[in-house]
Amino acid sequence: MIINSKLYDLPESEIKLIGRNNLIYGSLTNKGVSTMCNTIKKYCNNNIYGLDLGCGDGELIYNLQKNLSNSIWDGVEISNYRVSLQKRDVNIWQGDMLDENFKCYNVLHADNLCLDENISDKLEQKIINEFNGLYISYRKPNNINFLKKAIYLDVVLTETTWINHLIYYYYI
Questions:
Q1: What residues contact residue 28 under an 8 Å CB cut-off, 6+ apart?
Q2: In contact, 25 and 74? CB cutoff 8 Å
Q3: CB 83 within 8 A of CB 57
Q4: What is the CB neighbour count within 10 angstroms for residue 60?
Q5: What CATH architecture applies to the domain 25-171?
Q6: Cα–Cα distance between 44 and 8 in angstroms, integer?
Q7: Closest Cα to residue 90, out of 112, 133, 59, 125?
């Protein structure tokens, strides 16, 4: 998978508005994409309509869509600058993941490792309130309501552009 190095060169105005930690970006290597696709196939036997929360320029959803037959992926990214770097034929837009409607999707992917605790808590609450399907998370959820409702499926060591990282899979 090709990572555009410009994804890391954010305008100062976005850093001030959104916060540097909430804009930290990483993705999966080709091996990581393969691992994730195999895990998704294990839990999703039918058509996939996925949403990537924090999609950057859409490179990951391009690769997921390419490697998972019968899948369509959308992506939302808070950074307008990152959305402007889109080069692939994918459906992404600038927006706040907490403002999106999750009801029409059956897979959610959140590279949420660097989100602050308050935003992570709000995201987990939103997911259990309006989502049914496979939830993929780079951090172990802490929201007590999420933990009561979600069904833990798996944790898989996956190769990312930074390190090998545990990725959690839940069914909501």
A1: 1, 35, 36, 60, 63, 158, 159, 160, 161
A2: no
A3: yes
A4: 25
A5: 3-Layer(aba) Sandwich (3.40)
A6: 33
A7: 59
**Distance between CA atoms of residues 24 and 141, nearest Å:** 19
User: Backbone phi, then psi, for 9, in 5-degree steps?
Assistant: -95, 75
CB 29 within 8 Å of CB 160: yes
What's phi and psi for 5, nearest 5 deg?
-65, -20
Q: Where are the domains of the chain?
A: 25-171
Q: What is the DSSP letter of 101?
A: -
Task: Tell me the whole-structure pTM to 2 decimals.
Answer: 0.88
Q: CB of 114 within 8 A of CB of 22?
A: yes
Per-residue pLDDT tens over the stretch 107-142: 999 976 677 888 889 999 999 999 999 999 988 888
Q: Give Cβ neighbours of residue 5 (< 8 Å, ≥ 6 apart).
A: none
Here the tokens at position 78 are 């808070």
